[in-house]
C-alpha cells in the first residue's frame, strides 16, 4: 500500500523544494527591486502618504483613513474598516518605490469602490480558506492515523485545494491593482515620466511573489494528490 514511501524515500519531496526555491527567489527579487528604487527620491518630493491621499481624494475616497503601520513592506488596504495602511518604509518616504507601493494599495481601495469582481470573490472565499488552511493538514494526518481513512484524507485535500483557489483568485486582484497604480502615476501628477518605468519594475517584482505563492501551494497540493493517490488500495 505504501510503495516506496514506506521505505523513507519520497520523490515527491522535490516539489516542496522547487516551491521553496521559487518563493525564496521571488521574495529576494521584490526586496532587491524595492531597495534599488528606494534610493531614487521622486523629483517632486511627494511622500508615500501624500501620494496615497492625493490618489484617494481624486477617486472620491476622501473618507478612507491612511494609517502608518510598523514593518517593512507590510502595506495593505483593509476593506473591512476602509483603511489604507502604509508601512514605515512607505509612509514618509519620498522614493519612487514608496510612491509605487502606496499607489498599488490605493488601487485596491478603488477596486473596492467599484466592486471589482475578483476582489469580491476573494473576500467571499476567506471563511472557507481559513477553514481549509487550518483543518486540511490535521484531517489528512488523522486519516493516516486511522489506517489511511480515504474519506478524511480526501476531505483534507479538497480543503487544501481551497487555499490554492484563493491564491489563484488573488492574482488578478494584485495585477489589476498594479495596473491601476501605473495608469494613475503615468498621468504626471505625482511622478515624472522617466520615473514611471521604475515603479513598473517594483510592482512587477511584487506581483511575482503572488505568482510564486500560488505555484508553491499548487505544488504542495500536487504532492498530496500523488502521495495519497499512490497509496490507495
From TrEMBL:
Q: Name one Pfam family in it.
A: Zn_peptidase_2
Query: What's the protein name?
Result: Peptidase
Which positions make up the signal peptide? none
Q: Does the keyword Iron apply?
A: no
Q: Which UniProt keywords apply?
A: Membrane, Transmembrane, Transmembrane helix
List the transmembrane segments: 12-30, 123-146, 152-173, 207-228
Species name: Companilactobacillus nodensis DSM 19682 = JCM 14932 = NBRC 107160
Amino acid at each position: 500500500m505504501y510503495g516506496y514511501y514506506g521505505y523513507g524515500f519520497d520523490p515527491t519531496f522535490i516539489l516542496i523544494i522547487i516551491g521553496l526555491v521559487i518563493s525564496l527567489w521571488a521574495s529576494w527579487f521584490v526586496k532587491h527591486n524595492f531597495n534599488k528604487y528606494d534610493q531614487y527620491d521622486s523629483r517632486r518630493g511627494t511622500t508615500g502618504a501624500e501620494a496615497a491621499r492625493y490618489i484617494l481624494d481624486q477617486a472620491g475616497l476622501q473618507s478612507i483613513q491612511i494609517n502608518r503601520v510598523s514593518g517593512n513592506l507590510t502595506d495593505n488596504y483593509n476593506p473591512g474598516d476602509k483603511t489604507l495602511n502604509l508601512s514605515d518604509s512607505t509612509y514618509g518616504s519620498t522614493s519612487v518605490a514608496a510612491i509605487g507601493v502606496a499607489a498599488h494599495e490605493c488601487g485596491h481601495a478603488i477596486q473596492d469602490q467599484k466592486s471589482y469582481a475578483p476582489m469580491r470573490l476573494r473576500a467571499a472565499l476567506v471563511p472557507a480558506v481559513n477553514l481549509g488552511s487550518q483543518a486540511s493538514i490535521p484531517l489528512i494526518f488523522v486519516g493516516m492515523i486511522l489506517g489511511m481513512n480515504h474519506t478524511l484524507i480526501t476531505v483534507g485535500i479538497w480543503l487544501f485545494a481551497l487555499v490554492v483557489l484563493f491564491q489563484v483568485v488573488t492574482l488578478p486582484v494584485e495585477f489589476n491593482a498594479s495596473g491601476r497604480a501605473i495608469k494613475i502615476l503615468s498621468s504626471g501628477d505625482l511622478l515624472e515620466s522617466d520615473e514611471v518605468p521604475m515603479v513598473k519594475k517594483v510592482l512587477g517584482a511584487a506581483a511575482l511573489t503572488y505568482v510564486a505563492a500560488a505555484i508553491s501551494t499548487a505544488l504542495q497540493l500536487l504532492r498530496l494528490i500523488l502521495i495519497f493517490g499512490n497509496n490507495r488500495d
